[in-house]
Design goal:
The structure holds two protein chains of two kinds. Chain A is mainly α. In chain A, 76% of the residues lie in helices and 0% in strands. The chains are: A mainly alpha, B alpha/beta.
Chain lengths: 331, 309
């Protein structure tokens, strides 16, 4: 008699779809990242920066309120600074559409950049648990035997890093904008600052996606968890060193730094050079102040090497995908 | 017989110039099937193809009528318990099972009930549930691996060396679990080098060596096939010593043993094909009175040794 019978009790509930399973991989990754005290501290630091940013946005808004604390503070400044502050205030009142846009753009440019540094530190902390741990424990064998394809596994892992970066980068910046808008004297601030928000969101989404893929590639390089962190930090530092060397020798060397490439994207989106020109043209006091300064020597006011940055990012992403495809195999 | 659950047709898999599987045709039917073979025989390659982790280089393999590669609908029906250590050491068993359950499409709300049921089923003591997997003994890890393989209620369970590292009681526990699963209708493929365990568990075996299927089918069928060319015979006759001398002089035997009281000669044949061509003539010429000729009963281990050496 055959041992086979058809009385086996199957799982009676409804199986969830593929997006739920991808979500499960991502959610477990985020949960694993969150279990680290250091990661939580870094995320907290990002949110503190966001509060600082919101406070600054609130301060700018108060320049339009005659009886605000800012006014009383301005009155206590030195006469020269008072002239500058009054010039700025009258400019904001006269051209809110330009002033809010420019000031917000500068602020979002700086804060997005500072938070990117925190995000790079967060990646260094979470990179071992990304793929290295699955490879070292060989849990990848079991994952790949489940009803998810390798693509689904990668997608889940991608969203686990991307999710953490959103919590530590995108959401704080958006929250700062929202809070700034809520605390502003009128709703025109929300409208005039919309481009600064869109630029920040576009920059962070691209940068977080790019960094997530690179982090996955690096995490797949070694089965030793600590090695992944070391490789990430070394590449980060090495990239910055090469960036400095490239600035005074061959400019293409700068593109070997992922930080530099992201900075070029940021410059392309926020266009601080154009915003500065706008300020100089429309606010005489600012124009007079900056006229003698060699602002072009500051990297942030130079023309971005956008095409080179995008090509290098593309190459880096391709390399990461090749590494993932090569290293993340169950056999 | 039931329709095959797995069917391989001219299945091959190369690793560069190395042949993992070499143009094999086979069928695996419902029930418990043992996958036997020495290291490098192609067992793991076959298991990886069945579990959709590898693609065949040529030929085809169907599991439940579908190709498993990149096919979640097939993978959902398969539970896999790998031989290699594959547990994230920082997690507790319930967390791990919950995560894997969600990856399999089981909603989070099904836990912890489902996890408790599974851990009880694999007889993992409740006292160990709060420990991290890194603190588990080899035997406990095997049980958790089995639990995860059973989680999504598969139709086919594939176990790679499931008894490794288990003490005799643990082995018996796992054997009992597997038997009860088979009884419930789940099909099981077990790869093992401890053949005695397979012998007590499996109805069917598939023996692999050098990437080829050497023998496949019900254990007794293989045994019957092999007995046609048995290499060890037992002959009861009126003068076993005389028969031993004749066989020895004719250079037909590798060794023999005479049981005087039972008038029996047990001997191992040197060249079976040549021997069986002359066997009737030898007996006729000897003038002996033969009471009984039998091939020695073959255990799975002997079958395995025979077909793989």
């Amino acid at each position: 008699m055959s041992l086979y019978r058809s009385t086996y009790q199957h799982w009676k509930g409804k199986y969830q779809g593929i997006w739920y399973r991808r979500y499960a991989i991502a959610a477990n990754g985020i949960q694993s990242a969150w279990s680290s005290k250091w990661t939580r501290n870094m995320v907290m630091a990002a949110w503190i920066l966001s509060v600082v940013q919101a406070a600054l946005l609130f301060g700018i808004g108060q320049l339009l309120v005659k009886d605000s604390v800012i006014y009383s503070l301005v009155e206590q400044l030195q006469p020269q600074l008072q002239v500058f502050a009054n010039g700025l205030m009258s400019w904001i009142v006269a051209h809110p559409e330009i002033s809010v846009r420019s000031v917000y753009s500068f602020l979002f440019y700086f804060f997005s950049g500072w938070m990117s540094t925190l995000s790079l530190i967060i990646i260094a902390l979470i990179i071992p648990s990304l793929i290295s741990r699955d490879l070292s424990s060989k849990a990848i064998i079991i994952y790949s035997s489940k009803a998810v394809s390798r693509f689904d596994y990668f997608l889940g892992k991608f969203f686990s890093v991307f999710g953490v970066l959103c919590i530590a980068w995108l959401f704080p910046v958006c929250s700062a904008w929202l809070l700034g808008g809520l605390l502003a004297p009128d709703w025109s601030f929300v409208w005039h600052s919309r481009m600064a928000l869109f630029k920040s969101a576009a920059y962070i989404i691209f940068a977080a996606s790019f960094l997530s893929i690179i982090a996955m590639g690096i995490s797949a390089v070694s089965v030793k968890e600590k090695s992944a962190t070391v490789i990430w930090v070394v590449l980060w530092i090495l990239g910055n060193v090469l960036g400095r060397i490239g600035a005074v020798t061959e400019s293409w060397i700068q593109h070997l730094s992922f930080n530099y490439n992201l900075e070029q994207l940021s410059l392309k989106l926020f266009q601080p050079k154009n915003e500065l020109s706008l300020l100089q043209d429309n606010v005489p006091v600012v124009g007079n102040l900056l006229r003698g300064l060699p602002v072009d020597r500051f990297p942030m006011f130079q023309s971005p090497q956008f095409a080179g940055a995008m090509i290098t990012c593309g190459i880096m992403i391709t390399l990461a995908v090749i590494i993932l495809n090569w290293k993340v195999r169950p056999e | 017989m039931n329709d095959p659950i797995i069917q391989g047709i001219k299945l091959s898999r190369w690793y560069g110039v190395v042949m993992g599987l070499n143009n094999i045709d086979f069928q695996i039917h419902p029930g418990i099937t043992g996958l036997v073979g020495p290291n490098g025989a192609g067992k793991s390659t076959l298991i990886q193809i069945i579990t959709g982790q590898l693609q065949p280089s040529s030929g085809s393999l169907k599991v439940f009528g579908e190709t498993p590669w990149n096919q979640p609908s097939v993978l959902r029906r398969i539970g896999y318990c790998p031989e290699r250590e594959s547990l994230p050491e920082h997690l507790k068993p319930m967390d791990w099972l919950s995560g894997l359950g969600q990856i399999s499409g089981i909603p989070r709300t099904a836990f912890p009930e489902l996890g408790i049921r599974l851990l009880k089923r694999v007889k993992l003591g409740e006292a160990h549930w709060k420990k991290r997997l890194g603190q588990y003994s080899k035997g406990m890890r095997q049980r958790v691996k089995l639990a995860q393989a059973l989680m999504h209620s598969p139709d086919l369970l594939i176990l790679d060396e499931p008894m490794n590292g288990l003490d005799p009681m643990g082995r018996q526990d796992i054997a009992d679990i597997l038997k009860s699963l088979a009884h419930e209708g789940i099909s099981i493929i077990i790869s093992s080098h401890i053949l005695a365990e397979l012998e007590s568990l499996c109805k069917n075996v598939m023996i692999l060596n050098w990437g080829r299927v050497i023998a496949s089918g019900a254990k007794n069928e293989i045994r019957s096939d092999l007995s046609q060319w048995a290499e060890e015979l037992s002959v009861r006759c009126d003068d076993p010593q005389k028969l031993a001398r004749i066989l020895f002089d004719g250079d037909h035997v590798l060794g023999f043993d005479i049981q005087k009281e039972e008038q029996r000669l047990d001997f191992r044949i040197k060249n079976p094909s040549k021997f069986y061509q002359n066997w009737n003539q030898i007996l006729q010429d000897s003038g002996l009175i033969v009471f009984e000729i039998s091939s020695k009963s073959q255990s799975l281990n002997q079958i395995f040794n025979k077909v793989t050496t």
